[in-house]
């Protein structure tokens, strides 16, 4: 097990981490017990840090990533790519790295560096493929807790995430109540609806039935189930956008001419967009990882261990909460956040709730919206650090 705290000091007043951010690796030799009953041994986590851990070590913020994101949260990596939440995190940004030491971590099962299906299974000497154990949101949180311990952080100032990342933040507050002071849950839910599970399964079936999937061991065949990944991404992408945003951006516009071609080629602009997104996704994402992550989404139910009683699930929590939802997010609608807020209030927790009237659907949590960013900024500005409890 290795330790290493490679911090990056941000220059005050500079908006944006322009210097390259170097990913780091932490190895764990102790097996990680999983909810499935399996365990993961000899694994590693990829992570990045931004800002500086203060003397009191109480300004650390953990960022949990959503479905196809990674540890690269902010700044520019070695490939010249900006972090997936670069508009939210950095010097002078809503989560200000002039004040906070931010940790972005990549979960096990991912295809972005942490141990996952593409890595070697120590039991066989071959890539895990479909033999990689099914993981849950709570398993990820357990792995993140080990990272936290090895970084020498006793308590997070905040754990923050959007969508699937919000589920992880919520799980942190339920399972490790004394390990965080603030829980920031954005565009997320306490559990998926039947409709959401249905979308996920259709996407998985697209991958599982791709002739190039080879039961999940396609690495050994030198192929990629591109068709399945492509369709899975197209299905997912539809759910990330609102009807209004799609109508405004594409309408019923045709790519060429002003009349129908009466065939099944790409004809409407929306078809072209979805196929482009699907092709791009199939170029960089792993099919087994997609299966694992969507299953983790399906399995998450914050109240399941408490007989379905969300009030009971939150009874032992200690954190203060910031919850945000977006009016046109039909995948994780504001109503799901209302349920969480009500349960927290019933447990007499301090809760700040922001419902943003935004047209972009679920993806709004990744976009620049002054009202949304100002609400996050105001909340983080009121988080006490520097040894203040």
From TrEMBL:
Homodimer. The active site is at residues 163, 329, 362. This is Homoserine O-succinyltransferase. It is found in: Cytoplasm. The keyword Acyltransferase applies. Substrate binds at residues 233, 363. GO terms for cellular component: cytoplasm. GO terms for molecular function: homoserine O-acetyltransferase activity; homoserine O-succinyltransferase activity. Pfam families: Abhydrolase_1. Residues 59-366 form the AB hydrolase-1 domain. Transfers a succinyl group from succinyl-CoA to L-homoserine, forming succinyl-L-homoserine. InterPro entries: AB_hydrolase_1, AB_hydrolase_fold, HAT_MetX-like. Its EC number is 2.3.1.46. Its main location: cytoplasm. The lineage of its organism: Bacteria, Pseudomonadati, Pseudomonadota, Betaproteobacteria, Burkholderiales. The keyword Transmembrane does not apply. Pathway: Amino-acid biosynthesis; L-methionine biosynthesis via de novo pathway; O-succinyl-L-homoserine from L-homoserine: step 1/1. NCBIfam families: homoserO_Ac_trn (TIGR01392), PRK00175.1 (NF001209). Belongs to the AB hydrolase superfamily. MetX family. It catalyses: L-homoserine + succinyl-CoA = O-succinyl-L-homoserine + CoA. One of its GO terms (biological process) is methionine biosynthetic process. Keywords: Acyltransferase, Amino-acid biosynthesis, Cytoplasm, Methionine biosynthesis, Transferase. The record marks 331 as: Important for acyl-CoA specificity.
């Amino acid at each position: 097990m290795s330790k290493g705290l490679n911090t990056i000091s941000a220059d005050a007043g500079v908006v944006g981490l322009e210097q390259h951010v170097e990913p780091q690796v932490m190895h764990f030799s102790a097996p990680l017990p999983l909810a499935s009953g399996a365990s993961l041994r000899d694994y590693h986590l990829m992570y990045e840090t931004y800002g500086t851990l203060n003397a009191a070590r109480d300004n650390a913020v953990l960022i949990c990533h959503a479905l196809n994101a990674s540890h690269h949260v902010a700044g520019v990596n070695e490939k010249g790519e900006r972090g997936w939440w670069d508009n939210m995190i950095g010097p002078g940004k809503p989560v200000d790295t002039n004040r906070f030491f931010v940790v972005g971590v990549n979960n096990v099962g991912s295809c972005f560096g942490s141990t996952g299906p593409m890595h070697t299974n120590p039991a066989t000497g071959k890539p895990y493929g479909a033999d990689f154990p099914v993981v849950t949101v709570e398993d990820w949180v357990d792995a993140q807790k080990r990272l936290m311990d090895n970084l020498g952080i006793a308590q997070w100032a905040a754990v923050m995430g959007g969508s699937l990342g919000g589920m992880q933040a919520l799980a942190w507050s339920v399972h490790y109540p004394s390990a965080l002071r603030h829980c920031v849950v954005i565009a997320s839910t306490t559990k998926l609806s039947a409709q959401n599970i249905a979308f996920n399964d259709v996407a998985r079936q697209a991958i599982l039935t791709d002739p190039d999937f080879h039961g999940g061991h396609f690495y050994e065949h030198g192929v990629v189930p591109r068709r399945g990944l492509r369709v899975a991404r197209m299905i997912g992408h539809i759910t990330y956008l609102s009807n209004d945003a799609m109508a405004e951006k594409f309408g019923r516009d045709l790519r060429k001419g002003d009349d129908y071609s009466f065939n099944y080629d790409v004809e409407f602009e929306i078809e072209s967009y979805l196929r482009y997104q699907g092709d791009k996704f199939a170029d960089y994402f792993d099919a087994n990882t997609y299966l694992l992550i969507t299953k983790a989404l399906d399995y998450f139910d914050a109240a399941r261990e408490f007989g379905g009683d969300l009030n009971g699930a939150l009874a032992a929590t200690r954190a203060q909460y910031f919850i945000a939802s977006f009016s046109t997010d039909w995948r994780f609608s504001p109503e799901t956040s209302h349920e969480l807020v009500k349960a927290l209030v019933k447990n007499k927790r301090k809760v700040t709730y922001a419902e943003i009237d935004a047209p972009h659907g679920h993806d709004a949590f990744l976009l620049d919206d002054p009202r949304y960013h100002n609400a996050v900024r105001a909340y983080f500005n009121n988080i006490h650090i520097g040894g203040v409890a």
